[in-house]
């Protein structure tokens, strides 16, 4: 087997497991609210803390991956994620939930995107955006499959046993996935070709973005483009976290059953597949700036739709539009970083941008939970997310228009 596609497999499994289980959190948060009387502010605040830890550590795990390779980093963080997820089954006090999300879940999240997508960027040069989209389809599959599976397990086993089983399965899957995540050997070009072009990919070398001319992180962090990407990430990322976490509870507030509300997450996952593949293919052809715009427009339409929809069944087309943007945003950042800065310090640069996104992600869910606790509605939360999305669109338009080299046909 071509080693590049074994790496793609490991990245897909990692994305499937970590993000799919994270999407399922909102289902048993509803049970914790009813069983233990905990507020949505506390429940969403725990998730916010996990994202804050993810952001703080993303830069460091990116640098560790650049230096030591992805297998050790993903194996360690994946094992901790599975253990932490399973231990949620034993919580009885608020501090226990906060500790698990702040340590174990946060550590697992810190590496799942930065390390997998940075590794994909190193293996693939000519199809970097497309292969990033393929990997993020693994995320969408997790979003589609694991929430309904979680709901079924909760109905059959009770929520505590269901969460314990899911955590154990996650630890095993993530360790297996980590073993397949290798960086290209020094004798290979970043897309896996041998120097004499004897690999199965016979495309001519073409212009390269990751060689000796690629800047170091210290140089990149002084550029306006880097800080524009950081600010853009801060503005859109809260929507990518807040909507999936609260949408099931919002659906139940409008009258959907527990099982039907879980399918809202499946719809987001399904629509995000189209977003991931469309944006992944597009960024290779139209460049990162235009691909960002392609993501922001449906994000704004989706958020404004959630703001006005009061009929339960209308939530499904609204979250489908949002889901396209959701998938696109998770695909566009890594190949844009490689396009603009090369891959020498890709992990560190990508991790730095992710850090600023997770600052917003840490604030978004807890504010949405607080808004609901105070007003009994998510209206102001959706409004705030839409305003941030509009500002992000303006910043995205200001990015440089730099088209990658045309793709050669195989």
Could you give the topology of this structure?
Blueprint: H1 3-23, H2 25-36, H3 40-68, H4 70-87, H5 94-112, H6 114-123, H7 128-157, H8 159-179, H9 217-220, H10 224-253, H11 258-286, H12 288-308, H13 315-341, H14 346-375, H15 379-397
Helix pairs in contact: 1-6, 1-7, 1-8, 2-10, 3-4, 3-5, 3-6, 3-14, 4-5, 4-8, 6-7, 6-14, 7-8, 7-11, 7-13, 10-11, 10-14, 10-15, 11-12, 11-13, 12-13, 12-15, 14-15
Structural key phrases:
mainly alpha, 410 residues, Growth Hormone, Chain: A, disordered C terminus, globular, 15 helices
Report on this structure.
It is a single chain. With 410 residues, the chain is mainly α. It has a single domain (3-183, 217-397), classed as Growth Hormone, Chain: A. It has helices at 3-23, 25-36, 40-68, 70-87, 94-112, 114-123, 128-157, 159-179, 217-220, 224-253, 258-286, 288-308, 315-341, 346-375, 379-397. Helix 10 packs antiparallel against helix 11 and helix 12 (288-308) packs antiparallel against helix 13. The longest helix has 30 residues, at 128-157. It is globular and about 50 Å long. The protein starts with a helix and ends in a 13-residue tail after the last helix. Mean pLDDT is 81; it is low at 187-213 and 403-410.
